[in-house]
Amino acid sequence: MFKDVIGQTPVKQHLVELVHSNRLSHALLFLGPEGSGALPMALAFSQYVVCENRREADACGVCPSCVKAQQLMHPDIHYSYPVIPKKAGDKPVSTDYGAEWREFIGQYPYGNAYDWLQFIGAENKQGNITAQECNDIIRKLNLKSFESGYKILVMWMPEYLGNEGNKLLKLIEEPPADTLFLLVAENESLILPTILSRTQLVKIPLPETVDIERALAERAGLGAEQARQIAVLCEGNYHEALQLIRHAEDDWQGVLREWLNAILKNGPIAQVKWIEEISKSGRERQKQFLRYFNHLLEQAIRLRYIDGGGLPIPEGERDIALRLNKIADIGQQRAIIEELDNAAYYIERNAHAKMLFHALTIKVYHILADRKIAVIS
């Protein structure tokens, strides 16, 4: 239901108005960055469309259609998502993973594609939305609806749809009556242009910090101060907020101090030791570290322009941010932020961790080289 989607009041109102004013396009693209809630929004909208007793701003939540939709078992709502072969030679389709999909959405409604692929045991395998999947979609959507007036396809991550997606063009362009396509994506540049051009865009922004803070307090049971700190740190990405809770015991400040001391003071042996350690950690933990360092650099830049007492920064972070201002000017800090962003991008794409952090260490060293100050302690 819409009430389960964090924030996004204007988007919810817009979607409700599309239904009530009968201006609903047959193909919508829910486009939002990781952690924005684009998938929960699409699922809530599909439930709203099939609800038998719609309220003014949300589905009723109790009619038979709502109950089935909430359980992801409504016969007229179909789901498509990246999958992997269960064994060599398999030609998998989404329905092969129906039970796993329902369990995943129940546990991780704000999960990303990496979470999903790990959930189904992909490890280093690449997920795909296959040609067989496209054929299965065509077959399903050409059937008559069972219960509701609509047949709905929710396709999550159409970025995983290769040229075989062109099989769907005729269906999207000339769909059977009362057929609704809901595509849910993070990166429109990776979607087939032929499909992209046939959709109506629904932008899903990142939630406001206050909405994240409220959700962390109500859903994750955090205290007010911890909820506020994590909401500020995750910058609207609720998936990231949950990852920060999961890694709350990680000593990011200690890891950062060790790295900077290795770069500025202790030399190659200490650098190699640090790289070995960070490379052994999982991809999510590596991303968390890069995001944390990035956050501190952004706080350091803010401290240059705003009275330090006016920024709500935890004391430990404030101390490191001020020290970062001593070892790097604003140009150097922005250069490091760019390198951290690039590194996070490559981690997302399964870059070799040891090589990546070795290269990143060298780059940060050269950025800081002309203003080395003894140590971050």
Describe this structure in words.
With 377 residues, the chain is an alpha/beta fold. It folds into 3 domains: 2-205, P-loop containing nucleotide triphosphate hydrolases (Rossmann fold); 210-241, no CATH class; 250-371, Zinc Finger, Delta Prime, domain 3 (Up-down Bundle), CATH 1.20.272. It has a 5-stranded parallel β-sheet with strand order 2-3-4-1-5, with helices on both faces. The protein is built from 17 helices and 5 strands. Helix 2 runs antiparallel to helix 3, helix 9 (209-219) packs across helix 10 (224-234) and helix 12 (252-266) packs antiparallel against helix 13. The radius of gyration is 23 Å and the shape is globular.
Sequence-ordered SSE layout with sheet pairings:
Layout: H1 9-20, E1 27-31, H2 38-50, H3 64-70, E2 77-80, H4 98-107, H5 113-119, H6 131-141, E3 151-156, H7 169-173, E4 179-185, H8 193-196, E5 200-203, H9 209-219, H10 224-234, H11 238-246, H12 252-266, H13 268-280, H14 283-305, H15 315-327, H16 330-348, H17 353-368
Helix pairs in contact: 1-2, 2-3, 9-10, 10-11, 12-13, 13-17, 14-15, 14-16, 16-17
Within CATH, the superfamily of the largest domain carries the name P-loop containing nucleotide triphosphate hydrolases
Radius of gyration: 23 Å
Oligomer: single chain
CATH architecture of the largest domain: 3-Layer(aba) Sandwich
Series of H and E elements: HEHHEHHHEHEHEHHHHHHHHH
Assign the structural class, choosing from mainly alpha, mainly beta, alpha/beta, alpha+beta, or little secondary structure. alpha/beta
**Count of beta strands:** 5
SS element count, helices: 17
For the terminal residues, how far apart are their CA atoms?
Answer: 49 Å
Helix content: 40-55%
Strand content: 5-15%
Q: What is the CATH level 1 assignment of the largest domain?
A: Alpha Beta
Unreliably modeled segments = 372-377
Largest sheet: 5 strands, parallel
Strand order of the largest sheet: 2-3-4-1-5
Mean pLDDT: 89
- Number of separate domains: 3
**What is the CATH fold-level name of the largest domain?**
Rossmann fold
Shape: globular
InterPro entries: DNA_Rep/Repair_Clamp_Loader, P-loop_NTPase
Protein name: DNA polymerase III subunit delta
Pfam families: DNA_pol3_delta2 (PF13177)
Organism: Puia dinghuensis
